[in-house]
Design brief:
Elements (H helix, E strand, L loop, with lengths): L9 H4 L13 H21 L7 H5 L1 H20 L1 E4 L5 H13 L5 E4 L5 E6 L3 H10 L8
Antiparallel strand pairs: 1-3, 2-3
Length: 144
């Protein structure tokens, strides 16, 4: 059977962002997160007793704060992690691009990988600015 078209799966078209970017929770991790949410709900319920709200509404802010705090800390850790990008094997061209990006005030560095392939290294938090600057230079940027 000849297929001259490309078959896409639902997964490739709709890339879902994971709940946590850096942490991978196993059963123990999810258990600890659930326990922290239960403790937060138990502490939040008596604090909000005077509001006259139903029990479920009084307990809800505790787990929301725990999960929101976990996601914020995880995103902050992810933003500080370093990524790399390469578009050519020519070290001179990569050095010129790195110098141009540094002249624009972007914190990038050039690293030589073992097989002789130079890569630009930058933190995830600077990725949108670096990708925009690379696009201005006419370099196709990586898809996030």
């Amino acid at each position: 059977m000849d297929r001259s078209y490309v078959t896409y799966s639902a997964r490739s078209r709709h890339r879902q962002r994971r709940f946590l970017s850096t942490a991978r929770l196993n059963a123990v991790g999810f258990g600890a997160l659930g326990g922290a949410c239960l403790v937060a709900a138990a502490l939040c319920t008596p604090v909000l007793r005077r509001t006259g709200w139903p029990l479920a509404v009084r307990a809800a802010p505790g787990p929301v704060v725990v999960v929101t705090g976990l996601v914020v800390l995880d995103r902050r850790k992810w933003a500080g992690m370093v990524t790399s990008f390469s578009f050519t094997d020519d070290p001179a061209e990569m050095r010129a691009v790195a110098d141009q990006l540094s002249a624009r005030g972007l914190p990038v560095s050039l690293e030589e990988r073992p097989p002789g392939r130079p890569v630009l290294r930058y933190a995830h938090r600077h990725a949108p600015r670096v990708h925009a600057a690379l696009a201005d230079l006419g370099i196709s940027v990586p898809v996030p």
